[in-house]
Amino acid sequence: MTTSRNRVKRSEPEGSIVVMSDDGAVSYRLQPSRFGLCVQRERKQVCGHARLVHTAVFRDSACFLRWCEADSVRFDYPVVFSDIRRKGGALLESHERSAHADRDHEGR
Amino acid sequence: MRCLRVMSEVRTLTAITKDGEFFRQIADLAMRVTSELDAGEVSAALAEASDLCGADAAAFASFVKDDEAYESYRFILACDPTWCLEYESNACYMHDPWLEYTRRRSEATLAKDIPARTTQQIEVVALARRFGFASAIVVPAQSPQGLTRLGALCLGSAQRDYFDEQTLTAVSVALTGLVVRLHAWQTATLRDELLTRTRLSQDDLALLAQQRQGRSSKEIASMTNTTSQGVDSRWQRLNAKLGVSSRATAAQLAAEYGLI
Fold first, then answer.
1. For chain B, which has fewer Cβ within 10 Å, the N-terminal or C-terminal residue?
2. CA–CA separation, B156 vs B163, rounded Å?
3. Coil, strand or helix at B221
4. Any residues with CB less than 8 A from the CB of A36 and at least 6 apart, and which?
5. How many of the other CB atoms lie within 10 Å of CB of B26?
6. Which residue of A has its CA nearest to B193?
7. Annotated domain spans of chain A
């Protein structure tokens, strides 16, 4: 899927989604895992010619959305921001649904 | 995990480290960190280490100089990830005294003993304190000489004196194995990413190793029964694959990423 402002592609490992800006300055890999949603965010900084990559696992949508809101990408790359929020939110909801289903199953 | 957290909150670090089970659990955790794990599983392992130590936050930071243009800072987090966003916006990586310590020293230390001299360094530490590192221990991972890559595990507590001199030795002994494994995992991940991206062949890797050993085109040509011009052509293609401008940079990059 391609938009005018960002590129989205399915990539390895299975089930992960990569979203990146057209200029390649920022990219996210969203990977569902048994712990929640694993997000790897990479940003190339002009300052000091640095590449910053951080990885965190979000266990619920509230934490993920709070993190999204704090990201400067919201202003610099609004389409990427909205894509991440939407796709990450959907993956987390799916994770939460299956976690609930597993708990219900174990409870029986 | 929640239950562990509740239990750990009522125990002091002294009590935790006097329990032999603590060392066994951290050792087990370290052994589970293999190159097979993905970043999410490593983050979960960090969270487990943090819980075992009764800490509130954990981050494994690594650094590698990519090429002439870029240097990479990587963080695997088991803490509020908003910290990293602020760290990035304020370009904290340029003034981080804890990272600077890791560049120069190999022994674990308390973060409070690492001097923050400049205004920027004081701000970096203040930011960490806001995100669960009010007291912290920094455990560096060693790298081979001549390489820029480094790694460090930082465990933090919102409690000001949670990590102290009395428990420093025990905690650092327990965590050193884990840090070595995390650093090895990070190096293996970087290596795999670079190999996937560049599709280097075994011949390419052999050429990079020969450069690293200081061999000239003429020497390599004589060893491989080719001409110097042939070797130079191979170098041009190899530099293009790696996106660097010289063979020396290519060999350094390959070494930094654990390819040779």
1. N
2. 8
3. helix
4. A57, A58, A59, A60, A92, A95, B40
5. 21
6. A12
7. 17-106
CA angle B169, B64, B183 (to 5 degrees): 40
- Interface contact A95, partner B, CB < 8 A: no
Q: Report CA-CA distances (Å) from A98 to A84, A92, A95, A103, B167.
A: 21, 10, 5, 9, 41
| Candidate from B43, B66, B71 with C-beta closest to A55 | B43
Does any CB of chain B come closer than 8 Å to the CB of residue A31?
A: yes
Q: Contact B71/A45, CB-based, under 8 Å?
A: no
CB atoms within 10 A of CB B82: 17
Q: Which residue of A has its CA nearest to B39?
A: A55
Convert the pLDDT of each residue in B31-53 to its tens digit. 999 999 999 999 999 999 999 99
Cα–Cα distance, A11 to B99 (Å, whole number): 32
Count other C-beta atoms under 10 Å from residue A74's C-beta: 15
B211 contacts B249 by C-beta, under 8 angstroms? no
pLDDT in tens, A44-101: 986 668 899 999 999 889 999 999 999 999 999 999 999 999 999 999 988 888 777 7
Write the pLDDT tens digit of every residue in B215-228: 999 999 998 888 99
Instruction: Say if residue A107's pLDDT is above 80.
Output: no
Strands B57-65 and B150-157, by their bridges, are antiparallel
Structure tokens belonging to residue A27: 């990219």
In this prediction, the answer to ipTM > 0.90 reads no
Omega before residue B81 within 30° of 0, cis: no
